[in-house]
Amino acid sequence: MTLQPLNQGCYYFDLPVNIGYINHEETGILIDAGIDAGTAKKVASILEKEEMPLTHLLVTHAHADHFGGAAWLQTHYNIMTLAPPFEGAVMQNPRLEPVYLFQGTEPPRVMRTKFLEAEPVRVDGKLREGRMDIGGINVQVLVLGGHSHAQVGIEVHGHLYAADSYFGREYLNKHKIPFMVDVKAGLHSLRKILKTTLKGSLPGHGSYETSFDDTVRYNIDWHKRLLGELEEIVAKNEKMTFEEATAAFCCKEGVELNDMPSWSLYRTAAGAYLQALVDDGQLQWMIEDNFLKVHHQESQSVR
Questions:
Q1: What is the span of the domain harbouring residue 143?
Q2: Does pTM surpass 0.85?
Q3: Residue ranges of the Metallo-beta-lactamase domain (predicted)?
Q4: Backbone angles phi and psi of 14, in degrees to 5
Q5: Exposed e or buried b per residue across 48-85, where buried means at least 16 C-beta atoms within 10 angstroms of its C-beta
Q6: Could you tell me the pLDDT band of residue 300, with boundaries at 50, 70 and 90?
Q7: How many independent structural domains does the chain possess?
């Protein structure tokens, strides 16, 4: 783990889940907190060694790998924590993540690990779209939903901390089907990023790039390809149960599921892609023989 400088007080910690840092005088802002206390402790240790302040934490979205270290930070630092209101509700009640991934049912123990359920944290303020002054630092908050319902990105001095609005190519090639809750919102967020004028951008999983448009377009093309392949799967069968469609989608993309946490994540993602096709009029939900099914509709895509 190293602290990488950009310019004008902007930095980031290069990690499997990147963490941003912004400094101006006595204000030090972390953007996300890593997956656990160990990660947060290492970040804080580096800042202390460099004699850099830590006064604020901005959490982009309420997935455990992005705020799992927040509880440790709050215990050891007088730190103000801000998050989007919807995401903040999950951060304060983190059991909600495995609960919603298990369709609202009390989740089994195997789904209540640090990877899906962080420790609860205090949320001191709200991140809303637009300009905000945080400790004397002017930041632009952008709503970038899709991967999470109310995810935000943070732009400072022309650098975008983009959270999981898009992914590095290596990440997409490894995971095949990215976790999404709203694919159409995700595509909107990607096009929104393309309209910005920036010096560079850092995804949550991937590398900082000054020329990031190609990576963002790669994500758009990836989502469109997955939508097309999933539609083709259902069309060949005319109608399928939700579980059949999910399994066939994973098999088509080379995803092998061997545990419940993985199954719950990929099932949710498959549901998001199916819902996007339903919204486009290409598929239709139906209940038949006590099963939730998707039925193929002949229609033109509006993607």
A1: 2-165
A2: yes
A3: 16-205
A4: -80, 110
A5: eeeeebbbbbbbbbbbbbbbbbbbbbbeebebbbbbbe
A6: very low
A7: 2
